[in-house]
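Hey there, shall we discuss this one?
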Amino acid sequence: MAARPAAGRRAVEVLLEAELPRAEGRRLVLVDAVWAGGDQEREFTVQVDGTARRVHVTDQDSPLGIADAWRHHTTAVDPDGDSVLVVTGQVPADQLGWDLRGHAVRRRPLAVERADIVKQLFGAGDLDTRMVRETWLLDALLEAEPSGGWPRAGSVLTRDRALRVLLAARVGLGDTRDESLDLDADTLFDWSRTPAGPRCFAELPEQERTGLTTWLEEVTGPAAPTLLALAADGRGADALPLGALASAALACPAAADAGFALGTLFGHALGSFDALAPYASAATGVLTRWIAQAEAGGSAGTDARTRVLAVLERADRLADTARLTGLLAGDRLLPSGYRARLRTLAAALDGRPGPAQTALRDLTDHQLAALHTDSTERARTAVRLLRWLDGPQNTQGAQNTRDARAVQAARESVGRSVRHHLESTGWVDLATGILAEGDASRDSEIGEAYHRLIGRVRDRRRQLDETFAATLAIWTEAASQQAPHGALLIEDVLAQAAAPLARDGGRPLVLVLDGMSADVAVELAAGLAPRTWTEIVPTAPAGRRPGRLAAVAMLPTLTRISRASLLSGAPAEGGQDTERTGFTAFWKKRHRESVLFHKGGYEGTAGHRLAPALLEALADEKRVVGVIVNTVDDALADGRENGRARWRTADIAKLADLLDAALGAGRPVLLVSDHGHILDRSPRESGPTVAEGVRGARWRTGPAGPGEVELTGPRVRTAGGRITAAWRDDLRYTARQAGYHGGASLAEVTVPVLAFVPSGSEIPAGWTALPTEDTAPEWWRGDAEAAPPQEPAPAPRGGKGSGGGNRKRQPQHESLFPQPGQGTPGERTVRSKPFETQREFVRNAPGNTAVAAVLDALLAAGGKLSPAAVAAAAQAATGKSERNPQRFVTMLERLLNIDGYPVLQLVESGRTVHLDRELLRQQFPEGTAP
């Protein structure tokens, strides 16, 4: 005898809802199935034509039992009501008498057709034929129906749709009302990390788990069986960590040993070792995509980073329990692999740069390098310092002899020294500050390696400071505005930098950041968005590269002396009144109105970002505005709350607002200091040096001792024109502070002078854009980051469209279009017919010589340069200054982007001009022809 079907409460409910409306008052329902519900479900209510009908269910195994149950229902339970008796059981239909059948709905036992019931539940006209044979699926759909019912399916309920809504209802994978969820490995692994989903899956009947697993394997790939087996085993949260671990084990040199240990972690969830590779591949694919999301930043990136690190740290803990950590040390994904590579780099810092650079490449090749941004950048900074230590150093001190030639050489070296400090040595100080903060891993091995490297750098820096102090002493004896000996004096900064910006109606904002040293200046400049600000420098004489300005502070390097001299345009000493008077007098001589704002004068009151008086002054078309910001200098007393030595725009009070206000007013900005500073990195227990004549933290009167230099001359503005100043960074005469100034070190004496114009505006005459590639020294960039050569031969200053034929040929290197003897790729491109045709539609287009030079420079640089570097390449080729790099790039886009194809475009928020080599080849094919 075949097994009879089973019917639970929901199946009976659906059957009654379909049959009772046409039952003609009959209250007995015979069901050809056994009861599958619980005893507590034998009484319930159904809605029939808007009326609630009470239902009683009884399971009987004989005709006599059915007759007795019906008699009891009509006489004792509900003699005069409309409640329904449902009888299930094992009695065949042919054993029921006609007297009993006469009381039953349809006068016969009703079959329970799961497929029909499921169709009714989904409001479907038909079912996918495959579902009819899958009784586990039909039963699950009946059992799992949500309280609000299944969503309507339309004409046909497909198997895929049924399985999707079943997964949503049973294990929380998706939403029964929303079919937009993409079921893939990412979704499945993400679901495995939820607390309830895997547990619910483990509680399903085995047949249902098997059916769902088979379908998910078809949909999401071969990783599904292993993942779901882990979920069924109560280890769903470890599904992704184990996948990452499997990938590492399969890739390690001792894969066999690692695989054996891995088998103990998976247990019986791993059907076979053949399933390991696809499972590992799927898991690492998910993690790689999460890592890409994390690298993109934003709130979603932060969430992705948290997920990735949580999963991989768990993988490392699992590896530790299985004693796999040592075997997996070289992995590119696990955090332990990143830490191992970081330790390898740290161990290489005691030697030459070569091994350390190799270790850095290995570190940056790790997939977590971009997520551990601080650690990776700190490691890169350490290698930069190692390259600087390995490079040529000018540590030759001033000659003992006082002959005229030696004295003149010493005097001329001071200006070069402060410029070199801004160009290179200041970057050393920046790198030292980055490294001094320590690694986020708090690994003592790495920390000690950084500590030793910092010690070597400080020793070398002291040699440079000693050399500079000796030459400074000679230079100071006679240096003056009339005889600066090649140095820019701080009292000449307004005349040589601010006044040129004010020509032709220019309205510069002179921003004085009190105490800003070279390391602070270069980092602030690097943080300004090129799409917003373009850094400019004075045009250099022929044969010299343009560079940033650096001035020499007054001595001692104190605010009262140096800042007063800066703002007065002449040697001076005094406070705010002296500075206001001097600033006004300087600009009055040049027939310009001016106003100077000190601390407390430019900050806005409640509701205002900046003071209305300042905003009014910035909007004035005639006035030159000066603002003094004391944030850096103030921080030298007690340090900063975050303990960081580095400075960004947001770290300096109101600087971002001041720059935005200047941008809105269309003003160029001159960012200048009055002196620099040094930071105290000596041991906490070290005290001040005991000396006579102490006048400040870093200067005094009396004979010079070790680490000191005696300075005398017209630039010494106090103590009778003769002082003794400290040049060693660990020498101080007063109580400990976060930092100091007043001494004679390069960091204190050098005054950075940086100029910026709003991007998109014209560069003032006599100035040129400073390419981003030219701001950092070569040792900072390294071989991979080195700026491309931009030394095209000068051409006659011919008119536009003069072509490339008059340009002096450069040595031919391997190019995009290898055509020996036929000119550069850029020259061939501008001679091509598509380019000539496109020129006819672009008004005021740059000349062919400039365009060819830009294309050649971009190709030589790998397709990427800053807008300023692009303009510099054109200027070097034509001798004509491109005073608006942004507009110049826009014109190049119009020339090269035929039919909208992005041959050349601005990317990275305007920081970079990108040339697509392949599109260039496709759009200008005639450029390859002789």
Q: What stands out?
A: Confidence is low (pLDDT under 50) at residues 784-821.
